[in-house]
Amino acid sequence: MTETRLRFPPSPTGYLHIGGARTALYNWLYAKQTGGKLVLRIEDTDTGRSSAESIKGIIDGLDWLGIDYDEGPYFQTDFETDHIAASQRLLTSGAAYKCFCSKEELDAKREAALAAKKPLGYDRSCRNLSTEEITAKDVAGIPSVVRFKVPDRNGLLGYDDKIFGRIEAAYSEIDDFVIVRSNGKPLYLLCNVVDDIRDRITHIIRGQDHMTNTLKQVMLYEALKAPLPIFGHMPLTLDTKKAKISKRSHGEIVAVQFYRDNGFIPWAFNNFLALLGWSAGNDQEFFSKEELIRDFSLERINKSSAIFNYKKDDPKFITDPKAIYFNEHYLRTMAISELGQMVRKELEAENLWQECYASDRKVWYLDTLALIRDRFHTLKDFTSLGRAYFSDNFIVDSKPLDKNVLKFPELQTWLPELAARYEMLAEFTLEATEKAARELAEELAIKPGILINAMRTVVTGQLAGPSMFDIVLAIGRETVVRRLRDVGKYFKLV
RNA sequence: GUCCCCAUCGUCUAGUCAGGUCCAGGACAUCGGCCUUUCACGCCGACAACACCGGUUCAAAUCCGGUUGGGGACGCCA
């Protein structure tokens, strides 16, 4: 049994988007499952559209997701001599021929066919040129491209798709496609096959948009006398209007980078992506990395395309609600120490990180994260909604400010009074802080909720949060007292 | 226009290959309820789908044919 070898060959013409990420993930999973290798190959033969920035974006994106590769990145342009040699072989063996039709001519024909609603294929005018004619045109300096000569056969051309099953089409339906440009540069269909042969790729898992390419490439493998790899075409990811997802028409929301920048947990996002078009055949939705590698299978990939369910300008969900749901799940259930590492990066970016959180205050740090994470959706929430736990420099939300504080001007004396009592407490415990607050409320003949909600507001800036006295202990006596005493400042602003 | 592919709740899907256990199960979202000093979490419940038409069969979401709908491809892009 030979080693399985897979590849992820993005063209560096934009950032890594979720469709590409899903393709990379499925290839990665299959490689890991079979103990094979994953090759990263940058297909940069379209020099006009390829950019270094894009290459970096793709590599960073894979890195963030944790999709590692065993070989590469290789660059397709580094193998141009291989591609040209292959085209020569095809030319000499008669599997390909020179075509002298000009681009303008072809474009005109295509447009005419489109307008007339006729088939758009190449009319094969140069297919049967004699040696003399070819030489004459060459001598005359007429530019030519190299076209693959689709065999003149009656039967069906086909292959067994791991996902879709047997795929077939009549030879007569396939165009004599161009494999080398008139400037001598080989094209994708050829380069891709030559590289896959050289890289000894055994399984090609790619988007359904390549299905017609595959039919053509099957002939290329045959002409190049190379064994055919196993193909599997993944249904595309569509938007809610069922249009193919692309960076161009959908913007940031489909870029992997968006999820990194918005506080998503890498594995949560992989898990979401994996379930977008695949299921284990049961009700399981959450998979650890090991489980997913073990349970993943090409055969269970759904044949119909999945919709990435995000709604533009939705006030409640910045992206597909299910993606957020997966993120929340991991946020709440992952090992707290691991979460601690991730939140650390967020705190550092906001200048809120303190070294003691990794040493003498480590227990406090992790306990605090455990206390507040239940209500959060992304890693970003720790520095926004949870800012008051790490800094005095937090914003008090206007809604609770109006509702819980400004509505009761007497709080300007009540809260400082509570602060004074907290200062006097012999033991600053859950029971003692709650008792003190309730006693004060009773003395004042007000509902404890008034005091408690006001506390929550000035201490955390938020309308909602964990149990108030857990908060008090987490934030600590000194800070709580200071914030309670400072309540007057909110009234002055009005 | 031609070719290829697909079709179960709003979304992701189980069930389809081996027809009956499915008047279709789970999850997200939505809506209600419980819990609660708040808000979440959690728990409980509700809403909600086999695209359509024919055929085969004692029996069809499942098999066959057609229709419709959707997607993809048809580049000297990848």
Give the arrangement of secondary structure elements.
Elements: E1 5-8, H1 18-33, E2 37-42, H2 52-65, E3 71-75, H3 80-93, E4 96-99, H4 103-115, H5 131-139, E5 145-148, E6 156-161, E7 165-170, E8 178-180, H6 188-198, E9 203-207, H7 211-223, E10 230-234, E11 237-238, H8 247-250, H9 256-261, H10 266-275, H11 289-295, E12 306-307, H12 321-333, H13 336-349, H14 362-372, H15 398-406, H16 411-424, H17 430-444, H18 448-460, H19 468-475, H20 477-485, H21 488-492
Parallel strand pairs: 1-2, 2-3, 9-10, 11-12
Antiparallel strand pairs: 4-5, 5-8, 6-7
This protein binds one RNA strand of 78 nucleotides through helix 4, strand 7, helix 6, helix 7 and strand 12.
Helix content: 40-55%
> What's the domain count?
3
Sheet with the most strands, sense and barrel status: 3 strands, parallel
CATH superfamily of the largest domain: HUPs
**What CATH architecture label of the largest domain applies?**
3-Layer(aba) Sandwich
Question: What would a concise description of this structure say?
Answer:
This protein has 494 residues and is mainly alpha-helical.
Mind explaining what this structure looks like?
With 494 residues, the chain is mostly helical. The chain folds into three domains: 5-69 and 235-329, 3-Layer(aba) Sandwich (Rossmann fold); 78-234, 3-Layer(aba) Sandwich (Rossmann fold), CATH 3.40.50; 396-494, Arc Repressor Mutant, subunit A, CATH 1.10.10.350. Helix content is 46%, strand content 11%. It has helices at 18-33, 52-65, 80-93, 103-115, 131-139, 188-198, 211-223, 247-250, 256-261, 266-275, 289-295, 321-333, 336-349, 362-372, 398-406, 411-424, 430-444, 448-460, 468-475, 477-485, 488-492; strands spanning 5-8, 37-42, 71-75, 96-99, 145-148, 156-161, 165-170, 178-180, 203-207, 230-234, 237-238, 306-307. The strands form five sheets. A three-stranded parallel sheet has the order 1-2-3. A hairpin with a 3-residue loop joins β6 and β7 (165-170). α10 crosses α12 (321-333), α17 (430-444) crosses α18 (448-460) and α17 (430-444) packs across α19 (468-475). It starts with a strand and ends with a helix. The mean pLDDT is 92. The structure holds one RNA strand of 78 nucleotides.
